[in-house]
Amino acid sequence: MSMNIFRLAGDMSHVFSILVLLLRLRVAKNAQGISVRTHELFLIVFLTRYLDLFTTFYSLYNSIMKILYIVSTASIIYTIKFQEPIKSTYDKSQDSFLYWQFAVAPCAVLASVTHLIGSGISGFSFIELLWTFSIYLESIAILPQLIVLQRYREVENLTGNYIFFMGAYRFLYILNWIYRANFEAHYQHHWVVYICGVLQTLLYVDFFYYYFKSKKSGGRFTLPTKGT
């Protein structure tokens, strides 16, 4: 994958979102408003997508970023689930999205069907199947986090910044695809990636609206109750 300003900015936004969340956990010493289930989904995404770490070397930058995403996401999960006093502040009842039933399983079925249709039995590749699965799963991995924020309503400043940079990462990657499609002669289009990327970005739209609204007014960042 070639580098351009949009891809670099997207990667840095992703890294910054992780750093902001780790800082928030260390400074606040609590996990209120944070979804472990979203990070468990992202860890599944990274583990199934980055199997090429063992098969193909693209660049040192590429390998470092992949390892960073896996290690940092696992660190976030471990910190919230096992480290006190943070562990005691994590409310499982608020983070109750049934992601195995409504995220992992449907994405696995969809990936299997689309991969078989696209490649046929003779062209079946388990690694490619897992890569496709990771694309589908990433598009909805943020859902448990957005549900938790809706339940808490009042969003802590660093938590809001973390979600903002995650959304910015996805938006910048859309710009990266547009740039590459226009300036790279042999760029291969991946329509599944495009559709899932746009879907994931759209999930942030409502959050972005209230995030910028709170920044403009200088008030607390509070999400509206359902039906308002």
From TrEMBL:
Ranges that cross the membrane: 57-78, 98-117, 129-149, 161-179, 191-212
Location relative to the cell: Endoplasmic reticulum membrane
PROSITE patterns referenced in this protein's UniProt entry, alphabetically: ER_LUMEN_RECEPTOR_1
Pfam families: ER_lumen_recept
GO CC annotation, single: endoplasmic reticulum membrane
Keywords associated with the record: Endoplasmic reticulum, ER-Golgi transport, Membrane, Protein transport, Receptor, Transmembrane, Transmembrane helix, Transport
GO biological process, one term: vesicle-mediated transport
Entry GO MF terms: ER retention sequence binding
Membrane-related topology note: Multi-pass membrane protein
Family statement drawn from the similarity comment of this UniProt entry: Belongs to the ERD2 family.
Protein name, entry field: ER lumen protein retaining receptor
